[in-house]
Write a structure and sequence with these properties.
Rossmann fold, ABC transporter, ATP-binding, 2 domains, about 260 residues, binds adenosine-5'-triphosphate, 6-stranded mixed β-sheet, alpha/beta
């Protein structure tokens, strides 16, 4: 059996008639924590949706196991009469499961997923009334309840404060370590992920490069990816990735990084 949880080669994906990703390829080892990093519009959501088979794509995508997905920006109404534990149980009813689990097994699966994200304490509260960080835990438990091998998360740290984001990152890292789950998590800021990333998958200009942070976050590597000069600069214990060049749109190209491990 392959030691890879996900293998992608020669993948091209178009959105609205435009090729957003062009001939990208990478592999993720089982149990790896991989940050999918890129500016807004770089194609992170497109890649995750292609892996899920939700978008037509050219090339090869092989997922070795079951996939769980935490989509971007779910809005949960405060008055939605659904408790956190009920929401997690809905994860068992996905069309791919095909049959209903008996009650006791169902309850045990929900309980295990809630425990994995340390959400037992608010399991009986209405999901729409939980804090952003608590809701994110419930969304992860919803994706975890079928015990996926590969967990895809689309910008799960957006809208969280630094502490809540760090807690989510730590619990995801624990899932990698203790359960061998492979995590692919998209973010426009790699900063909060630096302490945990085994791999970084950096997307820019329709291309992608995958490796360790040390291998990828380098002036020459990112310059080649962007197709113009990039500086990776250390400032006050942080590292800035700065894109320059005449006629280039600078708005999204400053990425703050605390340290290269
Ligand atoms: N349904 C669609 N129809 C047409 N173009 C689309 C569609 N969805 C996305 N795009 C375009 O594809 C490109 C990649 O979008 P995508 O959402 O994958 O980027 P992203 O890296 O996830 O960015 P963000 O962080 O802003 O979500 C963008 O230029 C976007 O405008």
């Amino acid at each position: 059996m392959s030691g890879l949880a996900l293998e992608v080669s020669e993948l091209s994906v178009a959105q609205g008639g435009r090729e957003v990703l062009r001939h990208i390829g990478f592999g993720l080892p089982r149990g790896a924590f991989c940050g999918l990093i890129g500016s807004n519009g770089a194609g992170k959501t497109t890649l995750l949706r292609a892996i899920l088979g939700l978008l037509p794509a050219q090339g090869r995508i092989q997922v070795n196991g079951l996939v769980g997905y935490v989509p971007q920006k779910i809005q949960l109404e405060p008055d939605l009469p659904v408790r956190a534990q009920d929401f997690v149980a809905l994860g068992l009813d996905g069309h791919k499961f095909g049959f209903a689990l008996p009650g006791a097994k169902r309850a045990a699966a929900v309980e295990a997923a809630l425990r994995a994200v340390e959400a037992e304490g608010f399991a009986r509260q209405r999901v729409g009334r939980l804090s952003g960080g608590q809701q994110q835990r419930v969304l992860i438990a919803h994706a975890l309840v079928r015990a996926p091998d590969l967990l895809l998360l689309d910008e799960p740290l957006a809208n969280l404060d630094i502490k809540a984001a760090a807690e989510i990152v730590a619990l995801l890292k624990r899932l990698c370590r203790e359960r061998g789950v492979t995590v692919l998590l998209s973010a426009h800021d790699m900063n909060p992920l630096l302490p945990v990333m085994d791999r970084i998958l950096y997307v820019a200009g329709g291309k992608a490069i995958c490796g360790t942070v040390r291998e990828v976050v380098r002036t020459e590597v990112l310059s080649a990816l962007y197709g113009h000069h990039i500086d990776v600069i250390g400032v006050h214990g942080r590292i800035l990735v700065v894109a320059g060049g005449e006629g280039h749109d600078h708005r999204h190209d400053l990425v703050h990084v605390t340290a290269i491990p």
